[in-house]
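Annotated sample (chain length 264).
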Amino acid sequence: MGVRIILCAKQVLDPETPLSAFKVDRETKRAVPPPGADPVVNGFDENAMEAALQIKESAGGTITVISMGRSFVTDVITKPLAMGADDLVLLQDDAFDTTDSFVVASVLAAAIGKIGAFDLVLCGRQASDWDNAQVPLGLAELLGIPCLNLAKKVEVVNGCARIERITTDGHDVLEAPLPALITVTNELGEPRIPTIKGLMDAARKKPTVWGIGDLGLALSSLAKTEVVDLFIPAREKRCELIAGEDDADAGRKLAAKLREAKII
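Output written by the structure step:
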């Protein structure tokens, strides 16, 4: 039967967006997508997708991708299908426009429960928009399964998930019985690029779409956090040119200035 894998993927603003084009709506406390710039699949989630594909190739199985949000760009969110996933479930509802990690984890847990039996849940280590890294840990807790985080290598061996995790002086090898949840880092390697055939296959697959009514959740009772304010910090730069009779004199004056400022 192989390994039944569920991959959590998030559509995010492109982290390569120039700072000059990045805007924040202080009233809604949301980042404003730059005009004409498409979102992307979170980079760490693409690494997790690569890990899922490697497991599928070595042990067989299926990959079901789930993504939660208010709206999606079809060509973006279907990328995991083009890479080789079997199914895509979109959790799409105005109510899913939330930054509360516990709410997100609760919605994903309800969706996984609706999908049915699984062996492995894979997530990116964190999302590039908020960088909280909270959802996978909360999701594992809600599902009641072990969590192995920051994996640079993932294997399924004899009914167990095995990962390698980089440390400051080497690496750890960790195991947990299935079902389990694993978060994947970019140390796993570059995710594969979809082929033309993969893109054509993805275009023929119709995602399953579930709203809040399909999951039977009351999100207002789940919220644990509130965004009080969101803004781009103001930055000030000052430049002082140190002149001298020659380079050596300028160097001495610069050193004196740095000592005065207690930088050296």
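Annotation: The radius of gyration is 23 Å.
Annotation: The helical segments are 43-59, 74-77, 79-83, 101-115, 135-143, 196-204, 212-215, 247-260.
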